[in-house]
Amino acid sequence: MTVTYSELSAKGLVIEKHPNPTQFENHSDLPSSRATDYLLEVTWTIDQGWGTPSLHPYGPLSLDPASSVLHYATTCFEGMKAYRSFDGKKVTLFRPLDNINRLNDSCARASLPQLEPNAALALLEKFVEMEARFIAPGSFIYLRPMVMGTNAHLGLTTPTEAKFLIMASMMPKLNAAPLKLCSSPPDQIRAWKGGFGYAKLGANYGPTLKANNEAIKNGFSQVLWLMGEEGIVTEAGGANFFAVIKNEKTGKDEIMTCPLTTGVILPGVTRRSVLELLRNKYTSEGVEVNEKEFTISDIEKASDEGRLVEAFAVGTAYFIAPVQTIRTPAGKDISVPMSIGTSGDYAHYIKETLSQIMWSKVEHPWSHPVASAQ
Description:
Layout: E1 14-15, E2 38-45, E3 49-50, E4 54-57, H1 68-72, E5 75-77, E6 80-84, E7 91-94, H2 96-109, H3 117-131, E8 140-149, E9 161-169, E10 179-183, H4 209-217, E11 222-227, E12 232-236, E13 239-246, E14 253-257, H5 269-282, E15 288-291, H6 296-304, E16 308-315, E17 319-327, E18 333-335, H7 345-358, E19 367-369
Parallel strand pairs: 1-4, 10-11, 10-17, 14-15
Antiparallel strand pairs: 2-3, 2-4, 2-9, 5-8, 6-7, 6-8, 7-19, 8-9, 11-12, 12-13, 13-14, 13-16, 16-17, 17-18
Helix pairs in contact: 2-3, 5-7
């Protein structure tokens, strides 16, 4: 008998209606961390490929104790949001194919199966349609697509079985106070050249919690992760980091972020969008927007010389977060200027611009409508 190998497809999606959907009068009644009602699930085997996708009530997974994901960290995920416009009429995703393509890059790094991007997007859209009632006007839900190895075999081998899942949860808007960052401890590193810092693997995050917990204990928001003896600045917690300094030679502002070519930072979708917005608006004014390696010493020197303009972190969860304090490895606190209250001009501009796109205040190709969501 010939076995047909199947690529991921949204056709034939089986929907199991929830017997007891969550009831609420106001979105504020929902706990900020609770999952929504449904889970989308597709299984994969190395012999037959992707199976029939199903959308069913959210609940625990059934995994063999020997599953690859539990022993060898064969798992990757994405962080996304589904937004509802302030008038309540539109539900959109922000550059979703960028997230799906990045998920495929992460799958490749962890030897997990690939997703056909348009099929994955169609499944994501259907999931959002089912859960759109959880999105209040002017708000969002947090989406977590993920892939994990599920083959029940103890032994370091490429997964022969896997699952593609999509879940969502409520999440509060993180419009908190500006960030205070503490440089990473000299004996801990988040990622290294030749490693997997560029992929959104589960293994990238658990080992950072020790340093993060210590930073929070000492009154900081996140860890500013440094690399190497020279202290190359990479990421802030799980977010991409930007610093703005006045160039010593030209006196013009230079906006800097760690380059993807190092292989140690995540190619953030928000990061990419921020770079495009900044270059489109400010390059003609002589502002340089550079992806380049820079060090904590460069920031400290710029601060001492009055050339530090601002700093901010960007990502899906924290969105655009201005930075007010950076503690160096030597324990010196750098005070980061804020030209307009609790933000710098650049961070304010990109936050306002991206907000208008995400919440459909303006028409933009980055905003992807979910047609049937109500």
